[in-house]
């Protein structure tokens, strides 16, 4: 059976995503509006009966002075990754993207490789012999993931190795922390919190911390804390306009696609965070906090409110997004892993990002440019 690819309208793309239990927030049409430096296209896969059987959001980034593009499908596309004939899905995509002027294609198959339960993560952190999460014994392995990787390699795709000592990839994270919600009551999820989390939530409640939903007009208050967080944690912040554009694009597509939460105490905003929802998948997206009044524990209180609301929305998973792969005590990201695992989160390894060079010379030039950055 052959598959045909063609450009989809936003409505066709959105309808396909809406019919699925979940999809990445980077694979909905509105995500293209969040990235104005990239040109976006919605792709659809059609079978011989002209049924739409797959979809993907492609972002094109132009090379300076050349009409050649890097084509990127973050955490996508949405196709049958476990099909025996995976080439039947990917070959028409590569041919289409080559016609569009792409010199290289990058994608992130939404395929889970293995999982570590919250207890397994805790044990790995406590084990002095364990240096990386990947070295610790996983709680479960997803059947078929290794076969998908083998098929991609045989077809000429190259896996992007996570860069840096912290195990984060240059693109989207390969390791994430997720709290499973499917089939669990809110009481079950609360029991999954560790003692520190439960203690901090009670402390925040006793101190009078109030969690409120915000809107577009509250983004500057979020941003003030975000800029402080960026300075404290030594990362380059995105501009306020990015979050304003993100809010407008996502909430126009669906009113609950993006939410903003703020933790208040005695007239001060102490913490804020954004939450994204697609189907049954909910993400904690961006977080920000001040160093002031940390003793009233606004972050735990805010996360618990977000988890409660996610459960009310019917979420099957609450996703804390990227975590470090390193278990070294000296790494400043280990505290973040402890915080997320403390909420009952399991560590999840995805297949990572993969590249296909359509023009090897330009692809190699891009690799060299990225290595120098």
UniProtKB/TrEMBL annotation:
Source organism of this protein record: Streptomyces plumbiresistens
Name of the featured protein: Peptidoglycan bridge formation glycyltransferase FemY
A Pfam family that the UniProt record links to this protein: FemAB
Statement: the UniProt record of this protein carries the keyword Acyltransferase: yes
Keywords for the protein's UniProt record, in alphabetical order: Acyltransferase, Cell shape, Cell wall biogenesis/degradation, Peptidoglycan synthesis, Transferase
UniProt key word Transferase: yes
Family: Belongs to the FemABX family.
InterPro entries attached to this UniProt entry: Acyl_CoA_acyltransferase, FEMABX, PG_Glycine_Bridge_Synth
Domain of life, source organism: Bacteria
């Amino acid at each position: 059976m052959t598959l045909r690819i063609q450009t989809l309208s936003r409505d066709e793309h959105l309808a396909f995503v809406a019919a699925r239990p979940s999809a990445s927030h980077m694979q909905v049409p509105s995500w293209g509006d969040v990235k104005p430096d990239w040109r976006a296209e919605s792709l659809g896969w059609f079978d011989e009966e002209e049924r739409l059987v797959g979809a993907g959001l492609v972002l094109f980034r132009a090379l300076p002075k050349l009409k050649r593009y890097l084509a990127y499908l973050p955490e996508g596309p949405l196709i049958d990754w476990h099909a025996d004939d995976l080439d039947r899905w990917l070959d028409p995509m590569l041919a289409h993207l080559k016609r569009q002027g792409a010199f290289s294609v990058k994608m992130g198959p939404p395929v889970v490789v293995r999982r570590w339960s919250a207890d397994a993560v805790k044990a790995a952190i406590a084990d002095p012999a364990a240096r990386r999460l990947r070295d610790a014994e996983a709680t479960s392995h997803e059947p078929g993931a290794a076969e998908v990787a083998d098929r991609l390699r045989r077809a000429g795709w190259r896996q992007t190795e996570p860069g840096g000592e912290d195990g984060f990839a240059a693109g989207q994270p390969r390791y994430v922390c997720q709290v499973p919600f499917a089939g669990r009551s809110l009481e079950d999820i609360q029991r999954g919190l560790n003692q520190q989390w439960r203690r901090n939530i009670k402390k925040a409640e006793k101190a009078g911390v109030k969690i409120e939903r915000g809107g577009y007009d509250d983004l500057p208050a979020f941003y003030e804390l975000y800029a402080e967080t960026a300075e404290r944690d030594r990362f380059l912040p995105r501009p306020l306009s990015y979050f304003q554009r993100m809010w407008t694009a996502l909430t126009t597509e669906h009113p609950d696609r993006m939410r903003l939460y703020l933790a208040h105490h005695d007239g001060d905003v102490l913490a804020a965070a954004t939450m994204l929802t697609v189907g049954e998948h909910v993400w904690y997206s961006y977080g920000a906090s001040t160093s002031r009044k940390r003793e009233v524990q606004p972050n735990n209180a805010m996360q618990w409110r977000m988890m409660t609301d996610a459960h009310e929305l019917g979420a099957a998973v609450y996703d804390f997004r990227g975590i470090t792969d390193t278990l070294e005590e000296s790494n400043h990201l280990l505290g973040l892993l402890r915080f997320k695992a403390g909420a009952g989160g399991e560590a999840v390894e995805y297949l990572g990002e993969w590249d296909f060079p359509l023009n090897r010379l330009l692809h190699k030039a891009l690799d060299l440019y990225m290595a120098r950055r």
